[in-house]
Amino acid sequence: MARRALLSVSDKTGLVELARGLVELGWELISTGGTARAISEAGLKVTEVASITGFPEILNGRVKTLHPNVHGGILAKRTPEHLKQLEEHNIKPIDLVIVNLYPFRETINRPDVTLEEAIENIDIGGPTMVRAAAKNYESVAVVVNPSDYEAVLKELKEKGELSIDTRKRLASEAFAHTASYDTTIASYLQNLIQDENEAFPKDFTLTGEKVQDLRYGENPHQKAAFYRFPVTPPGSLAGARQLQGKELSYNNLVDLEAAWDLVQDFKECVAAIIKHTNPCGVARGETPVMAYKKALDADPVSAFGGIVAFNRVVDADVAKELVEIFLEAVIAPDFTAEALNILKEKANLRLLAAGEDLDNEDTKDYILKPISGGFLVQEPDRHVIDTKELKTVSGSEPGEEELDDLLFAWQVVKHVKSNAIVLAKDGVTLGIGAGQMNRVGAARIALEQAGDKAKGAVLASDAFFPFGDTVKLAAKAGVKAIIQPGGSIRDDESIKAAKDAGITMVFTGVRHFRH
Q1: DSSP category for residue 63
Q2: Pairing mode, strands 96-100 and 47-48
Q3: Residue 513 domain-assigned?
Q4: Does the pLDDT value for residue 373 go beyond 80?
Q5: 125-135 and 68-75 helices cross at what angle (nearest 10)?
Q6: Which of 88, 128, 136, 445 has the largest count of CB atoms under 10 Å?
Q7: Do both 111 and 31 map to the same domain?
Q8: What is the largest CA-CA distance in the chain?
Q9: Model-level pTM?
Q10: 8 Å CB contact between 511 and 485
């Protein structure tokens, strides 16, 4: 009896070559709809599934392979008992299933897609056949990826059959394929549900397609890979185009995410320079070049080998400045042709165009952190301070310029690892203390970095002061205003220290820990 292969694919890549190779090896082909037409038009003999089931495709193709004559042939073990049952019901075994699914992922990534179109691109028969064949891998081979066609044909030609190890590997790929497919559907539908009482689903599913294997992880002895979610929103790092430069590393991507996240938090033109996920210089400017120069001047030593992010298109003016020092990567919404021509001078410099962040509130996103045996999930810290929420607890109400600096420093400190202190003046960071075990230690680092520039500057703290020591240290350096969450049982100590030094202190009532 000739071996039979069932082919039903949305992606027709390599289909005809595979079908021809199977026919040359004596296989009988069974197929559906457009797949059958493509095979037939190539001059190959193919049997329509309808003639196997004895039932036509119905409901606009929603039902075509869901039939015992198909699934009995796939699921039957090659045991005397199962083969006898097949014979009694006039069902022939199916030995190879070649299936890939309706393009649900591609459909929902279209900006104009409707819910009806998305629903109609949910494959039912395809995943059922894939799962059935994968379950019965001891007797049946299943192929879901066109990249496997060549190797499958090669093994069939050389050995006459696929080894159990090959079938087991293909089955594993098949279950991963359907799991990813179902997770994409679940995530899409969850994003359509706005339920304030249930911020997180009962079952948190996650899937991603591999973009590339990375040379290594944080350190050379660690393996790493880069994955992209099925739906990549505009303005995201995962959807950015790399325009030039060396291959991205694990650490590059981590730093790029931190840099891109920071500049997207500002509406006005901002440049940020990042080292080890922390900003070393952030500045506002009327143009990208003005913002970049100020950010670089804030800490030129740390900027060496850093990541630079802009929330405006990189033009020729700023490109001329970027080539003056060694940088690992630059990310921006886009780059002008003139800028790209200048930046070619630094052939290894990685350039990423991320597009515009559309701030799509309909798309939920989460921050995940693994722990042993599980993971934690939280919403991103998107809180934007309303000036009505501010409470001045010391000194006079801040004037317009002073308030502007306080809010700028407060926005930056949100992106610094805790414990975090940021000094700023005129829309430029002057000193940043990050990731210290105590707050006064972070303040010492920031104040030392700012030096004499701390006089007349403002200070932001990501969390409250447990003691008055940080305020006293800031006063000694000449800081004129402080913004912090408040809420410590010793707030009175900090307030008194501020009053004694003539420092304006503002409480936000919001904490910005970043662990």
Answers
A1: B
A2: unpaired
A3: no
A4: yes
A5: 30
A6: 136
A7: yes
A8: 97
A9: 0.83
A10: yes
Give dist(CA 462, CA 420) in Å, integer: 6
Catalytic, out of 92, 135, 246, 499:
135
Map tokens 């610094």 to a residue. Answer: 416
Average pLDDT of the chain, as a whole number = 91
Structurally, how many domains does the chain consist of? 3
Note whether residue 36 is domain-resident.
Answer: yes
| Domain shared by 343 and 406, yes or no | no
Provide the 8-state DSSP code for 249. P
The predicted structure's pLDDT at residue 90: 85
Identify whether 39 is part of a domain.
yes
- Worst-scoring range by mean pLDDT, 88-102, 278-292, 317-331, 408-422? 88-102
The verdict on 312 and 421 lying in the same domain is no
Does the active-site annotation cover 135?
yes
Tens-digit pLDDT profile for residues 293-308: 999 999 999 999 999 9
Catalytic residue among 82, 168, 246, 276: 276
Q: Which pLDDT score, from 0 to 100, does residue 360 have?
A: 47
Q: The domain spanning residue 411 has which CATH number?
A: 3.40.140.20
Q: Which domain holds residue 61?
A: 4-191
Question: Within a domain: residue 301?
Answer: yes
* Residue whose structure tokens are 């891998």: 137
362 pLDDT higher than 60 = no
Question: What value, to the nearest 5°, has the Cα angle with vertex 131 and ends 127 and 137?
Answer: 145
φ/ψ bin of 373: left (φ > 0), alpha (ψ from -120 to 50), beta (otherwise)? left
d(CA 497, CA 509): 19
Residue 256 CB burial class (10 angstroms; 0-12, 13-18, ≥19): buried
